[in-house]
Amino acid sequence: MIGGGRYSDDFNFEGQVHLAFLRSPYAHGRITGIDIDAAKAAPGVLGVFTGQDMEADNVGRFETDIPLTELDGTEIFKTRRPALPTDKVRLAGEPVAVVVAETAHQARDAMELIDLQVEELPAVVTSLQAVAEGAAAVHDEKPDNCALHWENDTPDAYDAAAAKAHKIVKIELINNRVMPVPMEPKCCIAQVDDETGRMTVYAPFQGGRRVQGAVADFLFGGDGDMVRHISDNTGGGFGTRSKVYPEIIAICYAAKKLGRTVKWLGDRSETMVSDYHGRDQVNRAELAFDENAKILGYRLETLTNIGAWVTENGARLAIDGGGRILGGCYDIPVLYYSCRNMMTNTVSTDTYRGAGRPEANYIVERLMEKAARELGIDSKELRRRNFITTFPYTTQMGMKVDCGDFAACMDIALKEADWNNFEARKKESAARGKLRGFGLASFVEGAGGRPEELMRVRFEEDGSVNIYCGTFSHGQGHATVYSQILSDKLGIPFDSINLIQGDTDTAPAGASGTYGSRSSQMGGVAILRASDIIIEKGKKIAGHLLQAEADEVAFEDGNFKAREGSVTMQEVARAAHDPARLPDGLEPGLDETYHYKRPGGRTDQSFPNGCHICEVEVDPETGSVELLAYSAADDCGTVLNPLIVHGQVHGGVAQGIGQALTENLVYDEETGQLLTGSFMDYAMPRAKDLSDIKAEFNPIPSTNNELGVKGAGEAGCCGAPPAFVNAVLNALEPLGVKHLDMPLTPNNIWHAIHGAKNEGGPA
Amino acid sequence: MDMTGEQRIAAPKQVVWDALNSEEALRASIPGCEEVEKKSDTEFTARVRLSVGPVKARFAGEVTLSDIDAPNGYTLSGQGTGGVAGFGKGEAQVKLTEDGEETVISYTAHATVGGKLAQIGQRLIDSTAKKLAGQFFANFSDYLDERGASTGGGSGA
């Protein structure tokens, strides 16, 4: 730890001024007035702006751009969110006005003087409330609150399969809403160049050009050249930092309006009440089995709470995200999937580590465990019978799973977890009055995101090599892995390679960013391909130096070899900068950008998978659970750097256990107020909540990219929640507990134990 | 937040009722009260300084009386806003019952809060409300004592 990081708040500029947001204390209501006179007159205040000011200046809006339709062709309900609303407030914490003042304190004091008048309306808080008859409408234009009722098909095919079933197993599950909680709160600085009017925005982000694009679209008539976005370091992404928030637009608007550098650092509670949340589904699922316990069909009805606005991904997470791998590792011959995306007076839900795939895996793994009980078959055996074993396998949702060996992952995990001696350990726990449980989850996820990425590799005159990228490393070790790829490929020293990221002025045009476990499989491959072009050009230079034809030059281990002698990559790079040493007509320098397009596009992703196992101990007196052991067997394809991939697995597992054990975001169901709005009430997992995590790999190289990688960032939160809950259910089986919903707090477990007793379970 | 309670006041019912409808008595009794104004027989406005855990603010609010059954009880409904601290609103049914020379005030209240109050203070709302109710009635008894309206052995007379 040397303190060399530069987060957005570490940037300070001469003459910068500060901004504060007035946020709606109401979850839902009509704005009848915003009196800003007193705030304008307060000491140090430079400007107060509302949605009406922005509307008068024709500032753009966040438009829903999701190409999904309902079965009958009805388009998704499109919202047009202004950065600051003018008609209604639709969630508690929604920003409604900004104050800019010389100091942050002055801005906050003045903000308190704004008189916001709201005629309150009843709030719709949960997806179940939103779908109920007579519920208030979040948007007047959409009285049923359903932004999109997506179905893959009519239920007919499933119904026909179910009619022939030997057994149908049903489950209802709540996937609890959680907060992404990056360690760095929201922050933004907008700076305007006095002469050119060009704007530089500093804000933590996961790379790419979204901030640049949105600010350009909303405030500069779409001229991307007028906007530069810098995020030097970002303190946690998790999907929530890949979104452009209204705050950023309002800050840039104020900076442009005032011609000043405007800075805002959100505090923790502002971040919690405005960062997009994750998960929040109610699922009703069933599997139909034949007499051999083979799956005949899968039926799933999902209600998902997407919050007040139809954001970039909220309404497609459960469809394009979770839908990729809806039936998990299993051969599903028939599927009926209905997903209703419900709007409510809450913060939007959008991508959060896993983005739909943890939810999808959770459902099917809970269902398989329940099915095993009801069918009277060992759950491991039931899984084995139904695993996909023939590849490529096209899922009912049209995704092409290229490879995997789900049974092998399970075998590795079972060995790691010492399954064979579990009974002895269980007895030992029982002797101490504790209930020991063993639970596993096989999972598969689809990784890669947008099927294009660009990378630029450039040899500098001093001999160093820069990789310019739009992907962004906020803890994933890209500098290490990209350098490793390039160093291996070109035979140049690892230490001579630098990663230049987080700046739209240096990222290749069209670069995408880091999300969906895509950086190595997209960015890494683009680096490889850019290197190929460099090698080809290098052969021409080497040929010239060695007096050979370029096609007689071979490249091997960092050396260009001709019949007579050889030159190193670095020698060629030096020569490349000296026009005197270049063949005629060759541009000086080695500087190549590769635009990689994944061949199969959207359906041809990579499919990281694995089997995770939890061993837990429950105290039946208090309902508290202790995670004793965690064993992971992951197939993330070729492992480029074991240390880093272990780190990815550990991080994902910790976040998954967080959701399963402690985390729960609660809104007051009557008022729509966020009740878990501080760390007093929102319980992040702590080190003591986790056990050691054993992680082994079962690398089966992905066939969709030449690195063979599959992505590792999100697998952990797919495996951990179902493995953990299945383990606790296994522990509680002797007490007759058949069902639990996350998080498994002592309170929830205690009530489940006592509920089972009251129902006359075998207490 | 729901709260029910009972408070015994050592004064006759009519005295208690009159005090519950008096600006002066309310100003003296409401914890943190800076101002109470009786707009009409059924409307009051008030300014109160309150703190709920870490949230401190000055609340401005209105209270309306309905279902008035003098001197037996009424329904209070009101709301107050505290700027960025948020808002609170609620309703309370208040009933006065004579018990010898004393009066029992019983009440049932339902209140909701919003904004920072809810986000940070929710877990403290119940205990704060109980504390405030306790303070109110202590102040109220003192007020009656000081004016000799009390039938108890207070400082009156």
Written account of the structure:
The complex is a heterodimer of chains A (763) and B (157). Chain A is of the alpha+beta class and 763 residues long. Chain A is 28% helix and 23% strand. In chain A, a hairpin with a 2-residue loop joins strand 24 (554-556) and strand 25 (559-561). With 157 residues, chain B is an alpha+beta fold. Chain B has a single domain (2-146), classed as Alpha-D-Glucose-1,6-Bisphosphate, Chain A, domain 4 (2-Layer Sandwich). Chain B is 29% helix and 48% strand. Chain B has helices spanning 13-20, 23-29, 116-146; strands at 2-9, 33-40, 43-52, 55-69, 73-81, 87-99, 102-114. The radius of gyration of chain B is 16 Å and the shape is globular.
Q: What keywords describe this structure?
A:
heterodimer, A: 763 residues, alpha+beta, Aldehyde Oxidoreductase, domain 3, Aldehyde Oxidoreductase, domain 4, 3 domains, five-stranded mixed beta sheet, 19 helices, 28% helix, B: 157 residues, Alpha-D-Glucose-1,6-Bisphosphate, Chain A, domain 4, seven-stranded antiparallel beta sheet, 3 helices
